Amino acid sequence: MPGERGAAPVLDCGGRPLVLDRPRVMGILNITPDSFSDGGRFLSPQAALDHAMNMVEEGADLIDVGGESTRPGSDEVGVAEELERVMPVIEALSGEVPVPLSVDTSKPDVMKAAAAAGAGFINDVFALQREGALEAARETGLPVCLMHMQGTPRTMQQDPRYDDVMVEVKAFLGERVAACVGAGIPRDRLVLDPGFGFGKRSVHNFRLLRELRGVVNMGLPVLVGMSRKSMVGGVLGRPPGERIHGSVAAAVLAAWEGALIVRVHDVRPTVDAMAVVHATLYNDTE
Ligand code: 8Y4
After folding, report:
1. Less Cβ around it within 10 Å: N or C end of the chain?
2. Residue 207 Cβ < 6 Å to ligand 1
3. Residue 118: CB within 6 Å of ligand 1?
4. CA 283–ligand 1 middle distance (angstroms)
């Protein structure tokens, strides 16, 4: 039957449901001083709150708060510094922002502190591989995004190589799902992400996008982040601030292939685009 579909997944983001009956938009709130695409303007809690509320008004369904730069070549920050950056922002936003807050971290202590302060979602680009991360994430009871990366942020873009990027990304994500379930995290708390730009060349990124259905068919909700990244910049030959329309195109293609969360800088145009994708996928009445 045209348009027939199963029950939509629902993520319980610390008491706030995130219903994945249509592609949802995660707005990026970057609070690292070196975040080049918004110039580190969101260091103060008030500025962070203003930016977050703006994104909610533009239709963001959740807000991703990150204190550790994962840009290619970047170094790790210590746990104390990351807590110092992230916690004032989570504290200022929780209770004010009417959508779930996602904490972008790989550190168990940050996961626990953020959850205690009201975060509703864990976005871990290391897929809970850090010592103690599986246990910390399980204890929070929050949904977790497991992302694929080859290497570490410092070295990942030096010489990315794959025999078969699709096979390798799916195998990694499958292993991490098994590790999570083995550690007591229920499957229905997991979200998968192929990790665009994380240890991948353009050819790898575009194959993952073209064949994203293969990740979607693993049976868990899929999150993607391509906003303003070099896979878009390489096509356009323009700097991050001039990659909005290209980024929206990438988000549309991913949602068309079944991605249910798109992580973006430019919320309003992406929300509009997702509405059109959703209407195309499911508006089969009259
Ligand atoms: C311009 C702007 C160029 C931003 C590069 C970037 C993802 C993610 C990041 C992702 C998930 C970034 C924290 C990298 N990307 N989390 N985080 N998926 N789940 N770079 O793709 O935005 S940070």
Report:
1. C
2. no
3. no
4. 31
For 63-101, b/e burial (b = at least 16 CB within 10 A) is bbbbbbbbebeeeebeeeebbebbbbbbebbbeebebbb
pLDDT per position as a tens digit, 194-250: 999 999 999 999 999 999 999 999 999 999 999 999 999 999 999 999 999 999 999
Q: Is residue 285 part of a domain?
A: no
The CATH number for 99's domain is 3.20.20.20
Q: Among residues 229, 238, 243, 268, which one is catalytic?
A: 229
Condensed to tens digits (0 to 9), the pLDDT of residues 86-108 reads 999 999 999 999 999 999 999 99
Handedness of CA 115, 17, 250, 227 (dihedral sign): negative
Residue 263 annotated as catalytic: yes
If you search the block for the tokens 């303003």, which residue do you land on?
A: 228
Task: Answer yes or no: is 1 within a domain.
Answer: no
Q: What's the number of domains the chain is made of? A: 1
Q: Whose CA is nearest to atom 10 of ligand 1?
A: 225
- Interior angle at CA 105, CA 167 and CA 129, nearest 5: 45
Contact 281, 262 (CB under 8 A): no
User: Is 266 touching ligand 1 by the criterion CB < 6 Å?
Assistant: no
- 107 part of the active site: no
Ligand 1 mean position, distance from CA 226 (Å)? 7
Domain region containing 248:
23-279
> Per the domain annotation, does 76 fall within a domain?
yes
